[in-house]
Amino acid sequence: MIKKKMIAMLLAGGQGSRLGVLTAKVAKPAVSFGGKYSIIDFPLSNCVNSGVDTVGVLTQYRPLRLNSHIGIGIPWDLDRNIGGVSVLPPYERSDKGDWYSGTANAIYQNLEYMESFNPDYVLILSGDHIYKMDYEEMLDSHKAKGATVTIATMAVPWEEASRFGVVIADENGHITDFEEKPKNPRSNLASMGIYIFTWDVLREALIALADVPGCDFGKHVIPFCHEKYGTCYTYEFSGYWKDVGTLSSYWEANMGLVDIVPEFNLYEEFWKIYTKENAVPPQYMAPGSSATQALIGEGSSIYGSVHHSILSANVIVEEGAEVVDSILMMGVHVGKGAKVHKAIIAENTVIGDGAILGEGEYAESKLDTRVYASDLVTVAENSVIPPNVSIGKNTAISGVTLPEDYPNGRLEDGGYIIRGGEGA
């Protein structure tokens, strides 16, 4: 029988609805980050760098691009005969196979996969966070404390604690209580959604809670284990960790990469971030062009100016165009004389000559105030913005738009244009 010390189960099936039009057609873990990577590259690279060679990736929402990106795991050295990476979508079974209805339910539906490796420990991860962590150190802590469950935690500002599951622990890290998104938190030690379980305990909990609707780790499995065993401990993490679940946090995390001294360093030799590489030519900077404080992807051609921005591969910025404080994903084409200020532009979008994005003042979104709550312009993949239009702040665009979609040549602040039935 195959025997693994620790396997990882990576939850990557979420829609990421707070990213609005960016995730209308793609799962959040597959969203571009840092001009070169996908969000899921970070936990996958953490696994490889930590010596975890068996990873099950649980997909559900819009999995095609994520599946293609992962492939057989070659970029992460996870193309193994025994172990490696396995994509685990929900499937119909003779008993009651169904869509994943909660984080723990998704893991429960893959019990057979985990049992096939007979692991000592199971590492549960989310596929939508940006961070570097040595899971081997977390496992050492788990074993040293005799824990059945270890929860990775980090201190957050008190005013943000109610957004997280928080733990109350003593000076030894022993968890005495756990609260899921409390209105009045008693602790600012937030769960990072990263858990190590002793395998027998996880298996028992998942089977015992199998019939709980929407079974979730924070709401159900952790309280079950805490009540039955009491040996739940924290692993306090002090490094960089970012939940890029909102447009603002996604933009801020990307922009942090081009700070003079970035808080999150992509260039460390001892902890590389691996990704699927595309065969594209080198970047090109034309005479008279400029790029300052920017990451420019391979295959990009810059004829205009780029400042404090992230550009993925194969982006074209035409002569006289200006890109500032923006994220341009793969294949974006910015026309001559266009101005793009504080925008997130998804793949293969065309911005017409002379168009101006990000001009105006903040106004409340007319589309969804929970998702669009900043002064960003957000444009979905494969969209077209016609020449010479003006687009205000806190706006959303999806699809091939025409001049007549812009009254008096302008999309007002807080406005939106959604074409093709999707994108909200």
What do these coordinates show?
The chain has 424 residues and is an alpha/beta fold. It has eight helices and 33 strands. Strands 5-4-1-6-11-8-12 form a seven-stranded mixed β-sheet. A seven-stranded parallel β-sheet has the order 15-18-21-24-27-30-32, with no helix packed on it. A hairpin with a 3-residue loop joins strand 2 (32-33) and strand 3. The mean pLDDT is 90.
Gist of the model:
Helices cover 16% and strands 27% of the residues.
Overview features:
single chain; 424 residues; alpha/beta; seven-stranded mixed sheet; seven-stranded parallel sheet; 8 helices; 27% strand; globular
- Uncertain ranges: none
Q: Strand percentage, roughly? A: 25-35%
Sheet/helix structural class: alpha/beta
What oligomeric state is this?
Answer: single chain
The strand order across the widest sheet is 5-4-1-6-11-8-12
Number of helices: 8
Average pLDDT value? 90
Summarize the main sheet: 7 strands, mixed
Q: Share of helix among residues?
A: 10-25%
Radius of gyration, whole Å: 23 Å
In one word, what is the shape?
globular
What is the distance, rounded to the nearest whole angstrom, between the alpha carbons of the first and last residues? Answer: 48 Å
Find the count of extended strands (DSSP E, 2+ residues): 33
Topology:
Elements: E1 6-11, E2 32-33, E3 37-38, H1 41-49, E4 54-58, H2 64-70, E5 84-88, H3 103-108, H4 111-115, E6 121-126, E7 129-131, H5 135-144, E8 149-155, E9 165-169, E10 175-180, E11 189-198, H6 199-208, H7 217-228, E12 232-236, E13 241-243, H8 247-255, E14 284-285, E15 290-292, E16 295-296, E17 301-302, E18 305-307, E19 310-311, E20 316-317, E21 322-324, E22 327-328, E23 333-334, E24 339-341, E25 343-345, E26 350-351, E27 356-357, E28 377-379, E29 384-385, E30 390-391, E31 395-398, E32 410-411, E33 416-418
Parallel strand pairs: 1-4, 1-6, 4-5, 8-12, 14-17, 15-18, 16-19, 17-20, 18-21, 19-22, 20-23, 21-24, 22-25, 23-26, 24-27, 25-28, 26-29, 27-30, 28-31, 30-32, 31-33
Antiparallel strand pairs: 2-3, 6-11, 7-13, 8-11, 9-10
